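Example record

The entry below shows one chain as it appears in the dataset: sequence first, then structure tokens.
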Amino acid sequence: GSAETSPSVVFENIEKCSPNCLRLLLENISDLTVDEDFTVEVIPEINAAVATFLKSIDTEEFVRKCLQHKRVREFKMTARVLELTQTIKAENLPESISPDYITVYFESARNGGGPVSDVQLFPEENSAIITFCDHKGNT
């Protein structure tokens, strides 16, 4: 079968492009609508943003379009498909949360989850590392 690609694209070096400008730019390049067809999460600490497509699109083709786009080049931004992962970190968890609750929450199809193979709780950080059985359950 064909290799699965991530529905998310990472944009780096975004300091010259405000979050609203980035959203408009991605709408222009993709012909899709932000919030309806894709979401954008800006991560200022690492000067990056992640666009996650809710509609099925060819993210590799989208990255090619972005890298050729005049404005993306003017802003000196880079774009790449976010690699699929089997492990995520959940932060800001309630103090009394149980590993069982986390497992059931992340296995919920409604939350975009999938079968969980392991949960490591870090109560001192109010966080947990969740490992999925495969990379499909990490959206």
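Notes for this example: The beta strands are 8-12, 38-43, 48-53, 78-81, 87-90, 116-122, 127-132. The first strand starts at residue 8 and ends at 12.
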